[in-house]
Amino acid sequence: MVSAMTNWATFDQRLTAKRPGIVKGFLELLRRNTVSQNTDGVRAGGEWLAALMKNRGLDARVLETGGGPAVFGERRVSGATRTVLIYCHYDTKPAPSKEWFQPSPFEPVFRTVSEADDAAFVPFERLAAENLLDWRVFARGASDDKGPIWSHLEALALMDELGLPPTVNVKFIFDGEEEIGSPFFGPFTEAHQELLAADVVLVTDGPKHGSGRPTIAFGARGVLKFELTIEGARRDLHSGNFAAPNPNWRLAGLLSSMAAPDGTPLIEGFEDGVIPPTHAERELMARFPLDLPALERDVGVTLPKNYLERIMFHSTLTIRGLHSGFVGAEANTIIPHRSTVAIDIRMVKNQRLETVYQRVLDHIRAQGFEVIEGADAPLPDRLRERAVRVADKGGYDPAKTAADLPVCAEIVAAIERAHGGQQAVLMPTMGGSVPIWAFTDILKLPTILVPYANANNRQHSPNEHLRLDHLFQGVRTTAQLLRDLGGGDP
Description:
Blueprint: H1 9-30, H2 39-55, E1 59-63, E2 70-75, E3 83-89, E4 109-112, E5 135-138, H3 142-161, E6 169-175, H4 185-191, E7 200-203, E8 215-217, E9 219-231, E10 237-238, H5 247-258, H6 279-287, H7 292-299, H8 307-313, E11 316-323, E12 334-335, E13 338-347, H9 353-366, E14 370-373, E15 387-396, E16 399-400, H10 406-418, E17 425-427, E18 430-433, H11 437-442, E19 447-449, E20 465-467, H12 468-484
Parallel strand pairs: 3-6, 3-7, 7-19, 8-17, 9-18, 14-15
Antiparallel strand pairs: 1-2, 2-6, 4-5, 5-20, 9-13, 9-15, 9-16, 10-12, 11-13
Helix pairs in contact: 1-3, 1-12, 3-12, 10-12
């Protein structure tokens, strides 16, 4: 047993020694296919996580939501006067193997930090323990969001081993449907307010700043997703033998009415009520270290000069997928009978999902279309090419926590200590979305986002990966937070 510590030298030494075992255990989590649409895999992954947490001394269980189950875990600490609730998600985006530079996205492989994503990979067994900080692990969910989950669980395990208990009560809630918009998480939170009761919520989703410095955000944009479909004829038609309406042209016209070529939404009233950045928020943005030319070189396109304001304080309307007809080796000279677009909208503070959704429907009607809601609603022949079917709707509202709360300052200080005194990069809000509104609006709790994954980790894309140094830093960060937020040793 280790007595009260005045520094973290013993913890850090033991963490270094345990690195190979931490990675080996992490691979077992990564091998579990918990793609949101794989409902059996999500449930099996949740049950595996709950069993692991029980074996590590947590009061853990799988909780039904109506969709992908949630996993809850708790560690009560004698004498603790504060409770910290930590949110992550264990479901992942789909992982079509075609563009992954490895046999399977669910069989992890390794490349060094300096190598290209398509460089030759090596298995874990060939890594030298003393050089693990130089490697990245490639697998679906590695960064989003299984890496942070593993950092939390390994932090608690190492604290137990060293007799260094948290000074706060700890609760975990791991979402099983975040990647499909957490459709049941709001009602689930409403029904479990007592179980999830806490003093502060930490969300460890998303990427850190590109410098690797600790990164903290005080809000997240909301998201609304849906699909629009226009149908022409009852079936595909030969493009030479028929003269018939082509739903692709109808859809192209509708989409061009919804946004400018640069993606700026044109829907009437889309940003009504949106509040511009406050003076304090503009100061945070001014201090944000952004190398816009370097980012443009990385992604290969010109980016807006007000880039930070665009991703933090403005909504977006994004075409995230189009489907109609056939291309490539399957190309046919046909008039497609159906055209579908998948859209997501990122919403900012003061926008509400239902209000924005209704404005989208109003805009579609203003273009001369009928609106049919739902995938199963019938399409009368009289409405072919004249109706837009809206389906697969989902999402949640944006949310923010005031950055000047005392607990925010405590969290920033603890995280900076965990990173050896590095100054944190502070963001008024993240550009991405995570359902923190369930905590801010339902539980009325301050909610802080603390990303653990490295920047450019390819989340939501092929070749998603996590730097191992960030995995281990996550262990250190979690341990520091669980000590400091209850008044433990700095």
